[in-house]
């Protein structure tokens, strides 16, 4: 139980860290490097909801299924929206130091710095997204994010806990189709080995892979060592261990219907009267719920400041109520100071 609580605390801290970095440096607005890949020509940005669903249960993955110290679970999700010339990770390529630390230990500092550097150096990254950890092999985590034409791709990574260096994720999924955004994208996820630790089982001790291997997909027959926790020679392929669904959020600034007010003559209004009501109806600004509070930034013993943000769902129209503040800050004191 103590181990699980520690993992929860680490996951929550990482999640707040990512939210803070997203708040402080939201969006790397830039021009992508030209490529031969067809460019997205969608004229507007799009908002998506990401739903990650764990499917890691003992019935589907009975071999050495971890039930304690710690039990099967998922780390927080770290993702980016980007252009086609950037890769957070790639199958059959070497993992970066950031991917290595996250896949082995769930530590996100280095991978976040790599994302920031890519945004500044090759101008490929637009935004960072995250979702909190899932306590258990099954369960869901959700987050929302924005994409636009020059950076229409999504990549993310989620660590399998416990494991030597195993993870699931997606690499460069395009959410744009020509001049419009895809309404739904659903992908089944399978385990990957980061190629940095040579353990075969979920609870293997740290045993560095020297020299480092490339990222490979774990299958029922690969690695072929019989001790491997996913080894299932009788199966042609492993069942998906997780699933991700990406759903385009419909805009809410369109009025679908308007109640008809009764008139003194008990006659229904004409078509022109209804059109006038639609045109002249005030539309108040609508905003999302607040993000979690970011980390408290200050020296130990001193008071600091933490922030949270929200975004506009619908802009005001026809003299509707203006939008409220989209960022808040409050005083705080850092935790866990030494």
TrEMBL record:
Q: List the GO biological process terms.
A: cell adhesion; innate immune response
> What GO MF terms are annotated?
metal ion binding
Spell out the subcellular localization from the entry.
Answer: Secreted, Extracellular space, Extracellular matrix
Any one GO CC term of the record = extracellular matrix
Give the primary localization class.
secreted
Pfam families per the record?
Spond_N, TSP1_spondin
Q: Which UniProt keywords apply?
A: Calcium, Cell adhesion, Disulfide bond, Extracellular matrix, Glycoprotein, Immunity, Innate immunity, Metal-binding, Secreted, Signal
Reading the lineage from the top rank, the first entry is Eukaryota
Q: Where is the Spondin domain?
A: 36-226
| Subunit and partners | Monomer. Interacts with integrin.
User: What is this protein called in UniProt?
Assistant: Spondin-2
Gene source species: Seriola lalandi dorsalis
Q: Give the organism's phylogenetic lineage.
A: Eukaryota, Metazoa, Chordata, Craniata, Vertebrata
């Amino acid at each position: 139980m103590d181990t699980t609580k520690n993992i929860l605390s680490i996951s929550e801290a990482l999640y707040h860290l990512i939210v803070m970095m997203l708040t402080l440096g939201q969006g790397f607005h830039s021009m992508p490097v030209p490529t031969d890949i067809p460019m997205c020509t969608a004229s507007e940005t799009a908002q998506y909801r990401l739903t990650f669903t764990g499917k890691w249960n003992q019935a589907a993955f009975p071999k050495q299924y971890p039930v304690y110290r710690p039990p099967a679970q998922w780390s927080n999700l770290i993702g980016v929206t980007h252009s086609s010339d950037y890769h957070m990770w790639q199958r059959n390529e070497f993992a970066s130091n950031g991917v290595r630390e996250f896949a082995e230990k769930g530590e996100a500092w280095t991978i976040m710095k790599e994302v920031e550097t890519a945004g500044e150096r090759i101008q490929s990254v637009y935004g960072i997204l995250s979702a909190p950890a899932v306590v258990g092999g099954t369960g869901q985590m959700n987050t929302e994010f924005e994409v636009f034409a020059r950076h229409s791709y999504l990549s993310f990574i989620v660590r399998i806990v416990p494991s030597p260096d195993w993870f699931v994720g997606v690499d460069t999924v395009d959410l744009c189709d020509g001049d419009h955004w895809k309404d739904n994208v659903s992908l089944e996820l399978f385990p990957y080995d980061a190629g940095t630790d040579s353990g075969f089982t979920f609870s293997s001790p740290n045993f560095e892979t020297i020299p480092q291997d490339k990222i490979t997909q774990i299958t029922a027959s690969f690695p072929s060592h019989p001790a491997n926790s996913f080894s299932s020679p009788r199966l042609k392929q492993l069942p998906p261990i997780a699933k991700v669904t990406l759903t385009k959020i419909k805009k809410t600034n369109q009025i679908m219907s308007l109640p008809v007010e009764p008139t003194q003559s008990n006659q229904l209004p004409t078509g022109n009267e209804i059109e006038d009501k639609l045109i002249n109806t005030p539309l108040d600004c609508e905003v999302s719920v607040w993000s979690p509070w970011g980390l408290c930034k200050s020296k130990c013993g001193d008071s600091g400041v933490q922030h949270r943000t929200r975004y506009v769902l619908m802009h005001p129209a026809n003299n509707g109520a203006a939008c409220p503040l989209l960022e808040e800050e409050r005083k705080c004191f850092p935790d866990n100071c030494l």
